[in-house]
Amino acid sequence: MPSPAAEPADIPDHPAYQQILTALADAGRPMRARDLCQALDLPILPKNTEGLRSKLKRLVSRGILVETEPGLFARPEA
């Protein structure tokens, strides 16, 4: 499966980031860290949601994701 041409090149080199982006693309809607835990089959525990939230914030700071409202993350509109 080819990767999208518009995919930014500065995605951190860790599989979790690609899993997050894939889950968001599959959902086709903004998601919260808790929703992503469910989508990635992670237990809904504070350590998991906070870990995901920090990764989401890192992707926002790199311009890969946008935070449409506090705690709600999405891929930018193409």
Question: How would you describe this protein?
Answer:
By secondary structure, the chain is mainly alpha-helical. Helix content is 46%, strand content 9%. The chain is built from three helices and two strands; from the N terminus they run H-H-H-E-E. It has a two-stranded antiparallel ribbon with strand order 1-2. Strand 1 and strand 2 (72-74) form a beta hairpin. Helix 2 packs across helix 3 (46-61). The two termini are 20 Å apart.
Report the total helices. 3
* Order of helix and strand elements from N to C terminus: HHHEE
User: What is the radius of gyration computed over CA atoms, rounded to a whole number of angstroms?
Assistant: 12 Å
Q: How would you sum up the major sheet?
A: 2 strands, antiparallel
Oligomer: single chain
Q: Give the class from helix and strand content and strand pairing.
A: mainly alpha
Rounded mean pLDDT score: 87
Strand order of the largest sheet: 1-2
Q: Give the N-to-C terminal Cα separation.
A: 20 Å
Number of strands: 2
Percent of residues in beta strands? 5-15%
Characterize the overall form: globular
Uncertain stretches of 5 or more adjacent residues: 1-6
Kindly state the percentage of residues in helix.
40-55%
